[in-house]
Design goal:
With 582 residues, this protein is of the alpha+beta class. It has four domains: 120 residues, Serine Threonine Protein Phosphatase 5, Tetratricopeptide repeat; 140 residues, Chondroitinase Ac, Chain A, domain 3 (Sandwich), CATH 2.60.220.50; 263 residues, Rhopdopsin 7-helix transmembrane proteins, CATH 1.20.1070; 48 residues. It has 16 helices and 18 strands. The strands form four sheets. Strands 3, 4, 7, 8, 9, 10, 12, 13 and 16 form a nine-stranded antiparallel beta sheet that branches. Strands 5-6-11-15-14 form a five-stranded antiparallel beta sheet, with no helix packed on it. Helix 6 runs antiparallel to helix 7, helix 11 packs across helix 14 and helix 12 packs antiparallel against helix 13. The protein is elongated. The chain starts with a helix and ends with a helix. One of its GO terms (molecular function) is G protein-coupled receptor activity. It is a multi-pass membrane protein.
Length: 582
């Protein structure tokens, strides 16, 4: 490997000092100043020259240890400049050597720490900042019982020490070190913070790193013996203090962020199982509505309710199918992923707007008992809210996010809307309307429950109180799936980061369970939970059995058997009417 003459001579002079040919204390400034000049030259842009420059730092430091001597603090100004020059962006490729197993960056970091350790700092030394583009060396004098708060490159370090404290902040070095922790790939902070002080047993660090939601952070130090990051003795401040680290020792620190978010065990499997069951349940529910429509829709109120339910089912069915169609977006074409995102955005919004129509209809029925809704007005309003409003939201969101551009409107990794931070990203064009509707429907449910409670408050009967309690439970169970109340868990999901264990995990699993199985719950409460639907289904079922038994006798189909069928229908109709009157 070819090295420039200046660096070659400089390295030889440092090796002479290491062999004892000269006094380090007298020659240190000259060596470091010549290194500064050499690293400012354009000819340094090769691995051989960068490696030689780092060797100069390591060699002269070793020579100082051998001679048991230290150099004056004035050399730190030229050290800061020369070490900063080596980290300029133009030299990034020059750090890549022929042998990837040996880390030049680790040697560089060790050399800087050793250089600082070999610097003599008297007790009365004044505070000083040596600021360069990529390296800042900050010196704080000793102060009894006072902590040191060091600020450089927007990072802070605080420790208890009576001796001078030297902090070195280094930019553009972390990316040159192996960025994994316990075989997990991580994304490092831009800054490595090295703190040197005597009698400092515990240090508090503030390291800047933008954290993505549900991504774990690790406070680490560089372990020179293993040549890798280690979190031993360091503790992360958690989601409430994401940039804070506390460590029980001094070293070169940084903060790492996991490249992948925390994944909940079996959460995806639960989601797809629930969606599959929901799709089957919604299909069955639509078939049931088709079979019993004429039997159960006998009034305007029944017509309103079942019309809204059918539209909720259709919208949710299409949305769930679109969700299942995009489990592996990496294998889907970009246009297909965009189409699925738009479809899910529109259909899920339509589900909630139709749920709001159901809630408003129920609210009107409870409050204005003697004022009947006009069929055309109510259905016209429902179809406007159910389909036109979601369409307007989707179109405006699509256009305002670069006409549906990737990374602006949707993500190709999830085939869903983008989240870019608190109240940032297209996802809020879905979340905000949903949460508003959920709160409106929760208000509706509260009004219904208050109406149920009124007779009990006036009568004060213990028996009636039990009946009212049963009625309240029944109301909550029947209305929760069709009004989308379980989606309130989504609000808590946005508030709780997955690093907050175990509360975030419990909320996430609950949200996944209730909302992926929503179609199944609608089948139970919206179809099987209605007595008139059950009566109609029983009549259809028993008619089929009687007819099958009758036709099995061939041509012996008598008038007596027909009368039996009609008699059975009358009995079932009377039974259903009794249930209705109750």
């Amino acid at each position: 490997m070819c090295v420039t003459r200046d660096l070659s001579d400089l390295l030889n002079d440092a090796k002479d000092l290491q062999r004892g040919l000269g006094i380090v204390e007298k020659n240190a400034y000259n060596i470091f100043d010549r290194l500064r000049i050499s690293t400012e030259q354009q000819t340094v842009n090769s691995f051989a020259n960068v490696n030689a420059s780092v060797d100069v730092l390591a060699t002269i430091t070793n020579a100082s240890k051998i001679q048991n001597s230290q150099w004056d603090a004035k050399v730190l100004s030229v050290i800061a400049k020369s070490t900063s020059n080596l980290l300029n962006g133009s030299l990034n490729d020059s750090w890549k050597g022929y042998n990837e197993n040996e880390s030049l960056a680790s040697t560089y970091l060790k050399a800087i720490e050793d250089v600082i350790n070999q610097t003599y700092l008297p007790t009365g030394h004044t505070d000083n900042d040596l600021i360069q583009e990529n390296v800042q060396i900050t010196i704080y004098k000793g102060s009894d019982a006072n902590s040191k708060s060091i600020n450089s490159f927007k990072v802070n370090a605080t420790c208890q020490s009576n001796s001078p404290t030297v902090q070195t902040a280094i930019k553009n070095l972390a990316s040159k070190l192996p960025n994994n922790l316990n075989k997990q790939e991580t994304d490092p902070s831009d800054i490595i913070l090295s703190v040197i002080a005597d009698n400092c047993n515990k240090i508090k660090l503030e390291l800047r790193k933008d954290r993505l939601p549900n991504h774990e952070m690790y406070c680490v130090f560089w372990n020179f013996s293993t040549s890798q990051w280690s979190d031993e003795g360091c503790k992360w401040g958690g989601v409430d203090n994401p940039n804070i680290c506390e460590c029980e020792h001094l070293s070169a620190f940084t903060i790492l962020m996991a490249k992948e978010p925390i994944k909940l065990l079996y959460n995806e499997e639960l989601t797809y199982a629930g969606l599959g069951l929901s799709i089957g349940s919604l299909t069955l529910c639509l078939v049931i509505e088709f079979l019993v429509w004429n039997a159960v829709v006998k009034s305007n109120i029944a017509h309103f309710r079942h019309t809204v339910l059918v539209n909720i089912m259709v919208s949710l069915l299409i949305a769930d199918c679109s969700f299942l169609a995009s489990p592996t977006p990496s294998s889907n074409p970009s246009n297909w992923c965009l189409s699925l995102t738009v479809m899910k955005h529109f259909c899920y919004l339509a589900v909630f707007f139709w749920m709001m129509c159901l809630g408003l209809g129920l609210l009107h029925q409870v409050i204005f008992v003697f004022v009947h809704l006009r069929k055309k007005v109510y259905l016209g309003l429902c179809f406007f809210l159910g389909y036109v409003c979601p369409l307007i939201i989707v179109v405006v969101t699509f256009i305002s996010h670069n006409n549906g551009a990737t990374g602006s409107y949707y993500s190709t990794e999830t085939c869903w809307l983008m989240y870019k931070g608190v109240l940032k990203g297209s996802i809020y064009a879905f979340l905000l309307p949903v949460f508003v509707i959920v709160f409106v429907n929760m208000f509706t449910m509260a009004i219904v429950i208050s109406r149920i409670l009124k007779p009990t408050l006036s009568e004060g009967s213990s028996h009636d109180e039990k009946e009212v309690a049963r009625s309240i439970v029944k109301t909550v169970v029947l209305l929760t799936p069709t009004l989308g109340i379980t989606w309130i868990l989504g609000l808590f999901m946005q508030m709780l980061d997955l690093t907050k264990q175990p509360y975030a995990q419990i909320v996430n699993y609950a949200f996944t369970f209730f909302n992926s199985f929503q179609g199944f719950f609608i089948l139970l409460t919206g179809c099987f939970g209605e007595k008139r639907v059950n009566c109609s289904l029983n009549m259809i079922s028993n008619d089929s059995v009687l007819l099958a038994g009758t036709f099995s006798n061939g041509y012996w189909f008598s008038t007596f058997q027909l009368l039996n069928i009609k008699q059975y229908r009358l009995i079932k109709t009377y039974s259903c009417l009794r249930h209705k009157l109750r």
